[in-house]
Specification:
Length: 248
């Protein structure tokens, strides 16, 4: 199942550590772990747009072309939808292992661009028991009397995966907590009988932020899709009030 872009693929070739005195083997090349940096899970988790690249002028030209050419814009949007659907289908086809050992191999073989999505999907499985399992396997290799080249490679892979998943879980949990808080604060604004007083109170408590505005924009977009004109008008009015007080 492993692929070029999998987490295993993030382990590059590098010089082998000096062998222990108890082990005699010829120097071999081993892969060096390159820990993946967890970015904001809320931003393009599908990875449709790919990693940031150079070519600022080229991107501007492409954007201008999309603005001028409706057919090009529609073709681009269709391509994005098709790519998103393809990745969704591939994700749903993956078999989720029942054991911690199987889950370790699952994440090692997952493409790097899918790691954030899988962390969100399998967050309940990424618990203390799972990370204890990973730590035990790492310790077994570290304290082995003799270590083979394969064991050295395995150690690098496990430590890199452990770091990526721990950072990913932390980022995911923070995002979820921020989302819950934003929902509660937005509901408070929407249900307030004195919106201005409520907003001023929230400003004093430093409770207004861009997360609330983003969540409101998502609700407005959803209401527009459902042709809920009255709800759209109400929420847009609320939005204009929030913008006056919000601190980005």
């Amino acid at each position: 199942m492993a692929s070029f872009a999998s987490l295993r693929g993030a382990i590059l070739q590098g010089p082998l550590l000096a062998p222990r005195l108890a082990v005699r083997r010829a120097p071999t090349a081993r892969r060096r772990a390159v820990p993946a940096k967890i970015s904001c899970i809320g931003w393009d988790p599908e990875g449709i747009l790919g990693a940031p690249t150079g070519g600022h002028i080229s991107r501007l030209e492409f954007r201008r072309r999309l603005e001028r050419d409706s057919e090009a814009r529609e073709a681009f949007e269709r391509q994005v939808r098709e790519e998103k659907e393809r990745r969704r289908s591939e994700r749903e086809a993956r078999v989720i292992p029942d054991t911690d050992a199987g889950l370790v191999e699952f994440f090692l073989d997952t493409e790097a661009r899918e790691i954030e999505v899988e962390i969100g999907r399998l967050r309940p499985r990424l618990n203390e028991g799972f990370f204890n399992h990973v730590s035990r396997e790492i310790a077994q290799i570290k304290f082995a009397v003799t270590r083979t080249a394969e064991m050295e490679d395995r150690l690098i892979e496990l430590e890199a995966m452990q770091k990526v998943l721990l950072e990913g879980v932390e980022a995911y949990d923070k995002l979820q907590n921020d989302l819950v808080t934003a929902k509660e604060r937005l509901m408070k604004i929407l249900q307030s009988s004195d919106r201005k007083a409520t907003l001023l109170e929230m400003v004093e408590r430093n409770e207004l932020n861009i997360s609330i505005l983003t969540l409101l924009d998502e609700n407005i977009a959803s209401a527009k899709t459902s042709n809920q004109d009255e709800a759209v008008a109400f929420m847009e009015n609320v939005r204009s009030s929030i913008v006056k007080y919000i601190t980005v």
